[in-house]
Write a structure and sequence with these properties.
Elements lengths: L1 H17 L3 H5 L1 H37 L6 H25 L11 E7 L4 H21 L2 E9 L5 E9 L3 H5 L4 E7 L10 E11 L13 E6 L15 E6 L4 E5 L5 H24 L3 H4 L12 E6 L4 E4 L4 E3 L2 H5 L4 H19 L1
Parallel strand pairs: 4-9
Antiparallel strand pairs: 1-3, 1-5, 2-3, 4-5, 6-7, 7-8, 9-10, 10-11
Helix pairs in contact: 1-3, 3-4
Length: 352
């Protein structure tokens, strides 16, 4: 471990010198990448330097014990310092966990009703609002791409983006099947129904990673209908893009501008293609990827929202919280933090 952190510290010092060179500053893309790499190394190096200072303090306190006049003071210092040594060592080990290159990215998210008919569509609308509220709490930019409503206020399909540093690292755990248990408003007998909705979370692709040739696309325009059929555009502003080699189809009608709808649809298409390419390169990605808690498969039940009992249970970490209203209002951090800690624990075990 010591050699790894000494190497990191050496690389950061070299980068710091390089970042002051005029020729590198003048090369904007290279300079920006250098600053990004430095920012990634900085926390680990600072933790390492803090650990070394702690070891030095412990060594000094041990030396003081040989002086009768300072022995008591030294013992008191050691009682305070020694417990921190293991804590700081454990913290350092976290920096050695392989970094998921997608963690710093923004995300494309998709919500679709599962089993349960209209009640599932209403549940999908609850999840959509939950993620909007969570985005507000975290400072992520929420942008709708394609949201189709039902007449009763449910959601047939919702595609949207959350933009912000580290969005994927927080949202990746939401991928899977969510389950709701409650008495639907349409249920006259008061029986509890169980419905589901699926959530997909894709890291936003960068242009350099996905090569799409114009001849591979079929782009159709049509008149957009508003949420719930409330209005019809007078112009063909809605866009449907079909990627002919894969058959992937993306639609966007949220903006009044056809150009903006096309840009949003292309962003989603690139993310879906990136996810497809990534899965092809690593067949085990969605089934047994150690860097993610749970498999992420669409058919996996990851969480249950039980209204009669006022609880939400995440089945991957066996965590049950009795604050369903707060969670559906975007208070997700306690669940996501638990999933992150489990992920880190599994990765630490893998490190040996």
């Amino acid at each position: 471990m010591e050699a790894q952190f000494e190497s990191m510290e050496g690389r950061l010092e070299e980068m710091t010198v390089a970042a002051a060179q005029p020729e590198i500053i003048a090369d904007v893309p290279r300079y920006q990448k250098l600053l990004k790499d430095m920012a990634q190394l900085q926390p680990a190096v600072e933790a390492w330097r803090g650990y070394k200072r702690l070891l030095s303090q412990i060594e000094q306190a041990r030396d003081m014990r040989s002086d009768p006049e300072l022995a008591d003071v030294a013992e008191e210092e050691l009682r305070a310092l020694l417990p921190r040594e293991e804590q700081e060592k454990q913290r350092l080990r976290l920096f050695l966990i392989p970094h998921d290159p997608n963690d710093d990215r923004s995300v494309v998210m998709e919500i679709r009703p599962g089993a349960g008919g209209e009640e599932a569509a209403l549940f999908a609308s609850l999840l959509l609002r939950m993620y909007q509220r969570y985005a507000e709490r975290k400072g992520y930019l929420f942008e709708a791409v394609d949201i189709s409503d039902t007449e009763l206020g449910g959601v047939k399909e919702a595609v949207f983006t959350l933009s912000g540093a580290g969005a994927f690292s927080r949202m990746k755990f939401e991928s899977g099947v969510h389950r709701i248990q409650r008495v639907p408003v349409t249920e006259a007998g008061g029986r509890i129904h169980t419905s589901t909705a699926t959530v997909a979370v894709l890291p936003e692709a960068e242009d350099v990673e996905v090569d799409i040739r114009p001849e591979e696309l079929r782009i159709d325009t049509y008149r957009a209908s508003g949420h719930g059929g409330q209005y019809i555009n007078r112009t063909d502003s809605a866009v449907r893009i079909t990627h002919l080699p894969t058959g992937l189809v993306v639609t966007c009608q949220d903006e009044k501008s056809q150009l903006k709808n096309k840009d949003k649809a292309m962003k989603v298409l690139k993310s879906r293609l990136y996810d497809l390419l990534r899965a092809e390169k690593d067949q085990a990605y969605a089934q047994n990827r150690k860097a993610q808690v749970g498999t992420g498969e669409r058919n996996e039940r990851i969480r249950t929202y039980n209204f009669p009992q006022g609880r939400v249970t995440d089945h991957r970490v066996n965590l049950t919280l009795y604050k369903i209203d707060a969670i559906l209002d975007g208070d997700l951090d306690e669940i996501i933090d638990a999933l992150t800690m489990q992920e880190q624990g599994e990765l630490l075990k893998a490190l040996g």
